[in-house]
UniProtKB/TrEMBL annotation:
Pfam family, one: Molydop_binding
Annotated protein name in UniProt: FdhF/YdeP family oxidoreductase
Keyword Secreted (UniProt): no
Entry-linked InterPro entries: Asp_de-COase-like_dom_sf (IPR009010), MopB_CT_YdeP (IPR037951), MoPterin_dinucl-bd_dom (IPR006657), Mopterin_OxRdtase (IPR006656), Mopterin_OxRdtse_a_bac (IPR010046), Prok_molybdopt-oxidoreductase (IPR050123), YdeP_MopB (IPR041953)
Length: 848
């Protein structure tokens, strides 16, 4: 066993250990290990366990049938419309960050939290997984979104036993999602017993015993579902999957099933690794950057700094998105306000222009768009032989090129233009930027992954990179931009429902038990199984499945059918209120909190979007209460549940997290000497074969893919809906009712519509509407949204999640990945069916 606090307690989380040499350099490409760190995704169409049809829930009338609301309340909060902003960040972002931080945690506590955020000896941002610089880090190494997430975690208000005694579950459910989050940090373990309408206090031993009793009452371990949020660090994630598998099930759905599952499903069979291939410095060095189906200004604001640096180095940027987002147009870097030479220009100027070519694609039209660009590139190659397509790279490193080339050439321009909504001339403009460049990076996010053909679209992205030889060298490669802080790391740690035999064998050898062999449920399968009565216990380690998943009311029905629901979290959310017969609400630490155990101040780790594993060590004293760390909660549950059946030393892992990392170092390739490498400044890079042109596919080659471009017909009155975040939101956490970049203030129940689509339906700005989704003859309806005219392609509409999630059918999923199609929902829109008096009152309120 490597030297660790188990043998030398003085090593536990000590700052002096972080002075090791060889901090990673993201521009270098050394041999990063003998074997790539595992990354596990489906590579073929899903053969779901559950074929039974589940009827659509009565979405519109659910509010009358259940006292605890699963959907956010319909009461409107007062819409004010302004023009769309044309520049992201700037001084407004700084002001908003400070206001929120000081409001939530107080000036002293809030400022201390921000100063430790994303520092090499600090804690990891609990928001997005964008990488930190390997070298110099600013004193303010965070963005507006990260500041809000950290301030929320650092909240000095408590939602303790008195709070839950005051409000029933029904009353809590009638609060907005913002007000639930702002109620304060959870401080004590709480229980809702059968027939109760309040949560009440429970001791930790009793909570563990209650979980153990219900789990051990299962007729099969597969009657339990263990869900994970991407906010969970590596160490508790590893323990969570270990406990589930020692208990006897692979039912380990997680939030990646709903976001980048499509990315991994496309990258694994084509490049051999389901992760991106680039580093942060590659973005700085790129000649062309494509950004497809991503809004960095709201979802990954620190990416804007990298794009700004790339632009200043001469890069061209092509943006592909149905909405013209401020963060794709221009950027004012808040860091410039700290530089006397740049401050005036940053304050008075127009910011750094980012996008050179903006392609306002139709929803679900990205595959056709990519084909159009590649068709132009082949035509350019015909006119300039050997100058556009990298034949040398293709011959040496790839297979399948001929079939791919024929497929692209055979696609008609009429089909490309109709499906994408982009003209041949516009596509030529983008292709001309790419044709004679080799350092090309393509970035994408859920705007691609949540389409019906998300996997196939990403395979076309890979095709584009491969035909240009733009992978495995500085300034080039694939860049799926992940969401939550450790969503990529959780998968690396084994949070997956169908882990390969190599992982299971290593787990068996290390912990001396036989892991289950039957594949488990992903998110969609788990929801179906819960609804069909196939499970009795739901255990959620963080997150908010009710608000993150599709078909909100169907999830609510599924939760109510459980004997026990267990929610581990830091703050209250709507998912904690729609419960099983018995429910536990267990408070845990956030990234910002100091975690003291028997061996001292503990640290955990997270893996960012570019495969860097770095430490997370809290700096704030937790609020007074009875919280436990995620590690302690999992270990306490395991001890109570498994009893004499386990040979794992759960106590040792609770007392010293380096013991967990010792185990990980022997189970997961790429984590050798984990404890030593984690203490290096900035952490360490995991092995990445595609980054070095080592394609770990079965034949050692990168694979071109011949995809099928499908055209879908909709009725004349139907529109295609996509769901998005607002700017004052991260994942399902709502910080405020505003979306200032899009000009929305004081309201979330809005539907962005093309003005022509509004006119054809007799709608005016701020009219109240009902939205109905249509899928295989079934309908789901949400009421009392507000119509907002917006620059969006005709035939497309857009709304925020979680408000619009009840419209997403559980059965509508992406091919192969089984990801819910939140970026392709067929809907109709009509004036609201609510009674006229109420409509008038709401209109008067909005107009006031």
């Amino acid at each position: 066993m490597e030297d660790s606090p188990k043998t030398d307690p003085s090593k536990a989380g000590k700052a002096h250990e972080q002075k090791a040499e060889n901090a990673p350099k993201s521009g270098e490409r050394p041999d990063q290990g003998k074997a790539p760190a595992p990354d596990h995704y489906r590579t073929e169409p899903q053969d779901t366990h559950i074929h039974a049809h589940i009827p659509a829930p009565d979405v519109a009338n659910a509010k009358y049938e259940h006292p605890v609301l699963a959907q956010p309340p319909e009461a409107l909060t007062g819409l004010r419309l302004e023009g769309r902003e044309k520049v992201a960040a700037g001084v407004t972002a700084v002001i908003k960050s400070m206001q929120f931080s000081w409001t939530e945690g107080g000036v002293g506590r809030g400022t201390k939290a921000l100063l430790g955020l994303n520092q090499k000896d600090g804690f990891d941002c609990s928001s997005c997984a964008w990488p930190d610089p390997d070298e110099h880090r600013s004193v303010a190494e965070f963005c507006e979104n990260g500041a809000k997430a950290t301030a929320s975690d650092a909240d000095d208000k408590a939602a303790g036993p008195e709070f839950f005694a005051k409000y029933s579950l029904a009353e809590l459910s009638r609060m907005t999602d913002r007000d639930q989050n702002n109620a304060g940090r959870l401080t004590h373990p709480m229980v809702k017993r059968p027939g109760d309408n309040h949560y009440s206090p429970i001791t930790w031993p009793d909570a563990f015993d209650l979980i153990a009793k219900e789990l051990n009452a299962c007729a099969s371990p597969n009657e339990a579902v263990f869900y994970t949020s991407g906010k969970v660090p590596n160490e508790p994630a590893f323990l969570f999957q270990l406990f589930a598998r020692e208990f006897g099930t692979n039912n380990l759905p997680d939030c990646s099933n709903m976001c980048h599952e499509s990315s991994g499903s496309a990258l694994s069979p084509t490049l051999g690794l389901g992760k991106g291939s680039v580093t942060l410095n590659d973005l700085h060095e790129a000649e062309v950057i494509l950004i497809i189906g991503q809004n960095p200004g709201t979802n990954h604001p620190r990416m804007l700094t990298a794009l700004q640096k790339a632009k200043r180095n001469g890069a061209k940027i092509i943006a592909v998105n149905p909405l013209i987002e401020a963060g794709l147009v221009a950027f004012k870097n808040p860091q410039d306000f700290m530089n006397p030479l740049k401050a005036l220009g940053a304050l008075m100027g127009d910011g750094t222009p980012l996008t050179d070519v903006f392609l306002q694609v139709k929803v679900d039209g990205d595959m056709a768009l990519l084909r159009g660009i590649m068709k132009h590139l082949f035509e350019a190659e015909d006119m300039n032989p050997g100058q556009v397509v990298d034949k040398k790279f293709i011959d040496e490193f790839t297979v399948g090129f001929a079939d791919f080339e024929q497929n692209i050439r055979n696609t008609s321009w009429e089909e490309i233009e109709e499906i994408s909504g982009i003209s041949r001339g516009q596509l030529l403009e983008a292709a001309n930027l790419i044709a004679h460049k080799q350092k090309i990076i393509t970035c994408w996010a859920m705007g691609v992954t949540q389409q019906r053909q998300g996997v196939q679209t990403i395979q076309e992205i890979v095709n584009l990179q491969l035909m240009k030889g733009a992978i495995g060298k500085p300034g080039a490669g694939t860049c799926p931009v992940r969401g939550h802080s450790n969503v990529q790391g959780d998968r690396t740690m084994g949070i997956w429902e169908r882990m390969p035999k190599t992982f299971m064998d290593a787990l068996q050898k290390e912990f001396n038990f036989t892991p289950p062999t039957k594949d488990g449920f992903d998110v969609v399968e788990a929801i179906k199984a819960m609804h069909l009565g196939m499970t009795r216990v739901y255990f959620g380690l963080g997150g908010n499945l009710l608000a993150a998943g599709p078909d909100t009311e169907l999830i609510a029905e599924a939760m109510r059918k459980q004997k026990l629901t267990v929610f581990v979290g830091t703050k209250l959310n709507r998912g904690h209120l729609t419960t099983g017969e018995t429910s536990l609400l267990l408070p845990t630490f956030a990234h910002v909190d100091i975690d003291m155990q028997k061996s001292g101040h503990q640290m955990t780790s997270c893996e960012n979007s570019m495969g860097v594993v770095s430490q997370n060590k809290g700096i704030l004293v937790p609020l007074a209460g009875d919280q436990l760390s995620e590690v302690a909660i999992i270990c306490g549950t395991a001890i109570a549940t498994l009893g004499d059946k386990t040979r794992t030393d759960w106590v040792a892992m609770t007392e010293n997290y380096d013991v967990i990392r010792d185990h990980i170092s022997r189970v997961i390739p790429g984590f050798e000497d984990f404890n030593t490498k984690l203490r290096r400044p900035g952490g360490f890079y995991l092995p990445n074969g595609p980054r070095e042109r080592k394609f770990t596919t079965p034949d050692g080659k990168a694979h071109f893919t011949k995809t099928e471009l499908e055209k879908y017909e909709v009725a004349p009155d139907q529109l295609i809906l996509m769901t998005v975040r607002s700017h004052d939101q991260f994942n399902t956490t709502i910080y405020e009712y505003n979306d200032r970049y899009r000009g929305i203030h004081g309201e979330r129940r809005v539907l962005f519509m093309n003005p022509a689509d509004m006119a054809s339906r007799g709608l005016k700005a701020k009219d109240l509407i009902d939205i109905t989704s249509h899928y295989k003859g079934e309908e789901r309806r949400v009421e009392k949204f507000v119509a907002v005219p917006y620059d969006i392609p005709k035939g497309n509409v857009c709304a925020y999640f979680p408000e619009a999630n009840p419209l997403v059918p559980i059965g509508s999923v992406a091919k192969v990945s089984n990801t819910p199609t939140s970026k392709y929902v067929v809907v109709t829109v009509v004036p609201t069916a609510a009674n006229n008096d109420l409509r008038i009152k709401e209109r008067e309120k909005m107009m006031a």
